[in-house]
Every structure is written in C-alpha cells, then in structure tokens.
Design brief:
Structural class: mainly alpha
Order of helices and strands: HHHH
Largest sheet: none
Oligomer: single chain
Length: 64
Amino acid sequence: MNKKGEKGAFPLIPVIVALILAVIGFASGFFVKYKIESILSSVPIWAWWVIIFILIIILLPKRK
C-alpha cells in the first residue's frame, strides 16, 4: 500500500511544476503582447526561470 501511495504522489510534483510553467509561460506571453517595456524593466524574463529553479530545488528535498 505504501508503494502504491508513493507512486500516486510522485507524478503530482511534475504535474504541479508543469502547470506552473504553463501559467507563467501563458502569462509572460500575454503580458509581452501588451506591456513589453514595463514587464522587461520590472521583471526580466530570466527572473521567471530563476524562480522556477528555486521552486524545483525546494520541492526536491520534500519528495524524499
């Protein structure tokens, strides 16, 4: 039962990360169309990837 529970919980993390990536990807693409200058000056695109990597690093230890 424990193995079944772990297998059920494991795919949840990639799904959550994928959803976050999709939301950020859609939001950044949506904002770039309307406010390129303000978005680039306030929040650089590479900053989103830094945030994503930090979230992954935080989530990985919790998986164990």
